[in-house]
Specification:
The chain is an alpha/beta fold and 374 residues long. It has 2 domains: 2-252, tm_1862 like domain (pyruvate-formate lyase- activating enzyme), CATH 3.80.30; 301-374, Arc Repressor Mutant, subunit A. The protein is 40% helix and 21% strand. It has helices at 29-42, 67-80, 100-107, 123-129, 135-147, 166-178, 196-202, 211-228, 247-253, 280-288, 301-312, 326-341, 356-359, 362-369; strands at 2-8, 52-59, 83-93, 113-119, 153-159, 183-188, 231-234, 237-239, 258-261, 266-268, 272-276, 294-298, 319-320, 345-348, 351-354. It has a 9-stranded mixed sheet with strand order 7-8-6-5-4-3-2-1-9, sandwiched between helices. A 3-stranded antiparallel sheet has the order 10-11-12, with no helix packed on it. A 3-stranded antiparallel sheet has the order 13-15-14. Strand 5 (153-159), helix 6 (166-178) and strand 6 form a beta-alpha-beta unit. The longest helix has 18 residues, at 211-228. The chain is globular and about 55 Å long. The two termini are 33 Å apart. The chain binds iron/sulfur cluster (SF4).
């Protein structure tokens, strides 16, 4: 079983913190969709005939695609891949796109899951981030999607904003619960190089981020989710019950094959990774000549193990160290001992699992456990 990721590289406006690949100029969208369908057919053998159990439209802003564009993409996917009848098909959407008409048009396609970029239910945060929507639109679009019959809805929230008070963070979570959301992805704001936010901080126009505040928000988040009985199944991801766990993202974390389509998209076939050029014009021009612009890296055994440490340790299922053979398992056991002694890691069913305390410094633990090539 495998997954397909499709990157839609357009947005209405640039959020100040964002370093994903996108363009705010949408004139090339039609040419892009033509190139995308060419890429789909050129990559028909990438997954080695495995059935596709998840399709994920990410970006950028996939909700900018018209129904006709989506239908063209689905038609081409079905021509070249076997997609499970009950596949999870997610579309990332921004609240300002999800009008009643748009939702009903999306409902007529194969999309059965929305990932909505809410980020905050407060207007002053949305303005600070330069999001294209308002707080009221955020709540309204969720209700509209639910009224139209979408049950599997996830929303993104961001914490660690300099102006996000503890009370506002509590309120954002309480609003999500009140709206009957089944899945939440919560990310700590980070300052990526060459973003508007990095510029604002370096010129003193914005306050610096506060690590203690972000850690406190994360602890509050874990506490509230526990009280509500949600599954904390990956550091940043929570579901009300198992059936709402993201199948697509879980496949990444479990090392399954996936094909990434569109500019900047990454693919993994079990032994190598490849990534497409992060440039819309280059992508479109190249595919018009029948060539996918990508780079590729074959992974060594140690790189593959390190990738598993990076991804699986972040999940509630943990890292099954006995999978790696006697000597690597012993090495990982020895490396993990100090963290187990400090109650940052624990072992469950022969797997290493982060404790709540460990989740606060997950990146450091992952780095320490990773293996050297020699
Ligand atoms: S809508 Fe999403 S992809 Fe587009 S700029 Fe904002 S955060 Fe980035």
């Amino acid at each position: 079983m495998a997954g397909i990721y499709i990157h839609i590289p357009y947005c209405k406006q640039a959020c100040h913190y964002c370093d994903f690949h996108f363009s705010v100029k949408q004139e090339t969208k039609t040419a892009f969709v033509n190139s995308l369908v060419s890429e789909i057919s050129l990559q028909k053998n990438y997954l080695g005939g495995e059935k596709v159990e998840t399709v994920y439209f990410g970006g950028g802003t996939p909700s900018l695609l018209s129904e006709a564009e989506l239908r063209k993409i689905f038609e081409t996917l079905h021509q070249h891949f076997e997609i499970e009848t009950n596949a999870e098909i997610t579309l990332e959407a921004n609240p300002d796109d999800l009008t009643k008409e748009k939702i009903s048009s999306l409902k007529s396609t194969e999309i059965n899951r929305f990932s909505i970029g809410i980020q905050s239910f407060f207007d002053h945060h949305l303005k600070w981030m330069n999001r294209a929507h308002h707080a009221q639109e955020a709540e309204d679009c969720i209700k509209r999607a639910q009224d139209a019959g979408f049950v599997n809805i996830t929303i993104d929230l961001i914490y660690g904003l300099p102006d996000l008070t503890d009370e506002e963070w509590e309120q954002n979570l309480a609003t999500s619960f009140a709206l009957g959301i089944r899945h939440l992805s919560c990310y700590s704001l980070t300052v990526e190089p060459r973003t508007a936010l990095a510029h604002f901080i370096s010129t003193g126009k914005s306050r610096k981020l506060n690590d203690e505040q972000a850690a406190r928000h994360f602890e509050m988040l874990m506490q509230r989710m526990k009280e509500q009985g949600w599954l904390h199944y990956e550091i940043s991801n929570f579901a009300t019950e198992e059936k709402f766990i993201s199948q697509h993202n879980s496949a990444y974390w479990k090392g399954k094959k996936y094909l990434g389509l569109g500019p900047s998209a990454h693919s993994f076939n079990g032994t190598s990774r490849q990534w497409n050029a992060r440039n819309n014009h280059l992508y479109i021009d190249s595919l018009e000549k029948g060539v996918i612009p990508f780079e590729k890296e074959d992974l060594t055994k140690i790189q593959r193990i390190n990738e598993r440490i990076m991804t699986e340790l972040r999940t509630m299922w943990g890292l099954p160290i006995s999978d790696f053979g006697f000597s690597i398992s012993n090495l990982l056991s020895a490396k993990s001992r100090p963290f187990i002694n400090e109650k940052l890691l624990e072992t469950k069913n022969d797997s290493l699992v982060l404790t709540d305390k460990g989740k606060l410094i997950a990146d450091k633990i992952v780095l320490d456990l990773m293996l050297d090539e020699d």
